[in-house]
Amino acid sequence: MIKKKTIFRLAKIVVPLVLGLFFIYLTYRDTSVEERQTIVSYLKQTPEWVVLLSILIGLCSHVSRSIRWRYMLIPMGYKTNPINNFLSIMVAYLANLGIPRSGEVLRATTIATYEKVPFPIAIGNIVAERIIDLLMLGIFILIALVLNVEVIGQLLVENFKSWIISTLIISIVILFLYQLTRYFKKKIKTKKANQIRNFYNQFIQGVQILLQMRNKLYYILHSVFIWIMYFLMFYVVKFAMHDTYNMSLDILLPGFIIGVLTIATTNGGLGLYPLAVGTYFISFGISRESSFAFGWIVWTIQTVLIAVFGGLSFGILPLVNKSLTSKSN
């Protein structure tokens, strides 16, 4: 008999993939044979310089993220190797393509393995990063709202209910953890309780370092740089086709935000990213072929970047750390 844990693990892998394939089917269903042929031709005819520039910009954002992470770790006494930071981040992105949010755990595990950073602290750092990323997304939404009030206003209204529910769930979870910690602290003295309490304390320490570190300005500058690079990786693809070549910032920015939201809620935006971005551009009079092709080009570039560098990172990590260990000895 199959155990519940096994079913749950399989579901985490299968369900996102099935959803991704379903969204691909929706795109397939809503386009004619001629439109699909045109989309494929656009993909094939994408200028090499657009692909290479987008990949280079994406790499710059990932390198900056790895450097930014060190600003949280160094004040805590962990001078990690920048290469390990970068490789663990790429491995995490690759894992997220298969199972959403699994990369965060793998990233913390990787840095704990090779740099001896306690797992709870690493997870706390990553949670702190996500808070900053959420703030940066909020800033981009505000900018887009100023540039295009009607479109973003409608997007906010349509998702208002789900965002309220998500906020309530997060608040309840935080409150529950807080009360649980107080309970362990006051009532339970067992070894297991001490382990849980220590994990929680290290986790909070990993989050709070965001407020305590000295290089806050550099951290902020890297955060801004990372998100500008994210947008530019999206932006340069407009030069791949005549229909999108002259798209203005007020149209592109909301499309970028929609793309980010699909990646955050699925396994790398499989199927949903091209569908959501393409559907958005169609509403502005861009041809269906060019709109869907734009989404597929951006998603393909991002996915290939993660697949190649994430895959290489799995093999490079042991080699790099073997070399570092031999040098230290």
Helix percent reads over 70%
> Helix- and strand-based class?
mainly alpha
Globular, elongated, flat, extended or rod-shaped: what is the shape?
Answer: globular
Q: Rg, please?
A: 22 Å
Distance between the termini: 50 Å
Query: Main β-sheet: number of strands, strand sense, barrel status?
Result: none
Enumerate how many helices there are, as a single number: 13
Task: Write down how many β-strands occur, each being a DSSP E stretch of 2 or more residues.
Answer: 0
What's the overall average pLDDT, rounded?
Answer: 81
Beta-strand content bin: under 5%
- H/E series: HHHHHHHHHHHHH
Q: Which regions have little confidence, pLDDT < 50, spanning 5+ residues? A: none
Tell me what the structure shows.
The structure is a single chain. Helix 6 (119-147) packs antiparallel against helix 11. The chain has helices at 4-29, 33-45, 48-73, 82-98, 102-115, 119-147, 149-187, 191-212, 216-235, 242-245, 249-265, 272-282, 288-328. It has 13 helices and no strands. Helices cover 85% and strands 0% of the residues. By secondary structure, it is an all-alpha fold.
